[in-house]
């Protein structure tokens, strides 16, 4: 396959590029490097600096590349994704995330490219009414980020229906870990996710971390979430792209593990490496006690089976963070 990966210099997009290349595909990356890193782009991928919200940037990439060989599939990772920031800057989020997708689809139709793989999120479910999330559950996002993703999902569905195109929409749960090569991983300032924060605390990069509430109805009172290794997620993208291309069908699929770990269980796992200094503080508004993804559909349609466990997720995150310290 020849694949255009928009946002391929970011955390998840760069891992998808690595897996696409391991699977012997031809990869072109377009990214504006707003949160991505040029060094994350695999050496065998072609890179274009460009912004998805500028039609001329998209057209330039499609014009040059499709003259050589049309793309089989376009993958979209190019979003802004910080929930509190989206509450303060909703217009920027709708512009980047929704208008970016609209322009991408417009250019795809102009160049007759018929397959799109889209990164969506568990945030489209809002505050779920049940612990295990299934794809047909009600969607009611509670912030502009989640809403921008749901709006994009809907637009993709209508456009694919009108232009006889196929989509693969993936709704991710909590993504963590790093590629086994340790060449890429989650390297950002102000990380907000539990695993990297616990690892940073264990490595002494942070003094102390907060645990928001220990009085939930869970195994130990702390919130339970579903964690998925970024390389498992990336492999699902390879399978999803092949599926829609070969079957001429569209799919909407959760990517999670069907299982959950509490905050304290995650801290215990990290403590196998080093002590984690933490304090219990009051609950955060809007945090459900448990949130787990049903991955039955991903397994049955794509034959996708996550191969990394929570121990691998934490091990690769720790090893990656150590390489960052050593390379400073
Ligand atoms: N990280 C998670 O836990 C998570 C969870 C659910 C869904 N997602 C989705 O996965 C996707 C990738 O997330 P990530 O964690 O890799 O984030 P990231 O910030 O590391 O990657 C996003 C990439 O897109 C690029 N980009 C952003 N706006 C662009 C634009 N206008 N034009 C061109 N490039 C642009 C950035 O420079 C960056 O390289 C996003 O769509 C996000 O909504 C992520």
Structural account:
There is one protein chain. With 328 residues, the protein is α/β, with parallel strands linked by helices. The chain has two domains: 204 residues, 3-Layer(aba) Sandwich (Rossmann fold), CATH 3.40.50; 103 residues, UDP-galactose 4-epimerase, domain 1 (Alpha-Beta Complex), CATH 3.90.25. 40% of the residues lie in helices and 19% in strands. It contains ten helices and 15 strands. The strands form four sheets. It has a seven-stranded parallel β-sheet, sandwiched between helices. The protein has a four-stranded mixed β-sheet with strand order 6-15-10-13. It is globular and about 55 Å long. The structure holds nicotinamide-adenine-dinucleotide (NAD). Nicotinamide-adenine-dinucleotide binds next to helix 1, helix 4 and strand 5.
Question: What is the fold's blueprint, element by element?
Answer:
Blueprint: E1 2-6, H1 11-22, E2 26-31, E3 46-49, H2 55-68, E4 73-76, H3 83-88, H4 90-110, E5 115-121, E6 132-133, H5 144-162, E7 166-172, E8 174-176, H6 194-202, E9 209-212, E10 224-225, E11 227-229, H7 230-247, E12 251-255, E13 261-262, H8 263-271, E14 278-281, E15 290-293, H9 296-302, H10 310-326
Parallel strand pairs: 1-2, 1-4, 2-3, 4-5, 5-7, 6-15, 7-12, 8-11, 9-14, 10-15
Antiparallel strand pairs: 10-13
Helix/strand/pairing category: alpha/beta
Q: CATH fold name of the largest domain, please?
A: Rossmann fold
- What's the number of domains? 2
- Unreliable residue stretches: none
Contiguous helical run count: 10
Ligand names: nicotinamide-adenine-dinucleotide
